[in-house]
Write a structure and sequence with these properties.
With 189 residues, the protein is mostly helical. It folds into 2 domains: 1-114, Rna Polymerase Sigma Factor, Chain: A (Orthogonal Bundle), CATH 1.10.1740; 118-189, Winged helix-like DNA-binding domain superfamily/Winged helix DNA-binding domain (Arc Repressor Mutant, subunit A). It has 9 helices and no strands. Helix 3 (51-70) packs across helix 4 and helix 7 (143-153) crosses helix 8.
Length: 189
């Protein structure tokens, strides 16, 4: 996927700014965009969004961030803020798209395509069986458990995950422990 230039996200600002000049807020948003775009994209693809839809959500997230920072609002935990806004926008987009033709199978195929295969033929077959079992176990998890697992894989800590999903720290810990135990059992079969 080609990187989306931040300038496409901030056209209104670009029109009013001097050519080549960036405000400190825009510099900060550009830096955060470069740092979190790929991670946020992977998380959004896990919602079952098509790649172009996920890219649009990312644009909306960073436009919201720009406006948020431009208004002088809190800069505390911007990583968690980005994932929370992305989470909410993805839920809205997914609800809208469910009326369309996107299926969970297509989303799972996109997610499975992110994993590199093992090098040898025997290893590829073995890895394929393990991957199928893990993917089946992942699909069988309740949605909240899948979201916790995905956010943890993206590097968010328990407190950030709790903030993104609006659940307690205890619920995050329980969800992750339960999910990881289930995934480990499936991998060992």
């Amino acid at each position: 996927m080609a990187d989306v230039p931040i300038s496409t996200i901030l056209p209104a600002y670009q029109a009013t700014a001097a050519p080549g000049a960036r405000s400190p807020v825009e510099e900060e948003v550009v830096a955060l965009f470069d740092q979190f775009r790929e991670r946020l994209l992977r998380y959004l693809l896990g919602f079952g969004l098509a790649a172009p839809d996920a890219e649009e959500v990312i644009q909306d997230v960073f436009l919201s961030l720009f406006l948020h920072l431009q208004q002088g609002k809190s800069r505390d935990n911007l990583r968690g803020w980005l994932f929370r806004v992305g989470h909410n926008l993805a839920l809205k987009r997914r609800q809208r798209d469910r009326a369309g033709s996107l299926t969970e199978l297509a989303a799972d195929q996109q997610t499975a395509g992110l994993v590199d295969p093992a090098p040898g033929p025997e290893d590829q077959v073995l890895a394929s069986h393990v991957q199928k079992r893990l993917l089946a176990a992942y699909r069988a998890l309740p949605e909240r458990d899948r979201r916790c697992l995905w956010l943890r894989a993206e590097g968010l800590n328990y407190r950030e995950i709790a903030g993104v999903l609006e659940i307690s720290l205890g619920a995050v810990a329980l969800s992750l422990a339960r999910s990881l135990a289930r995934m480990e059992r499936c991998a060992k079969r």
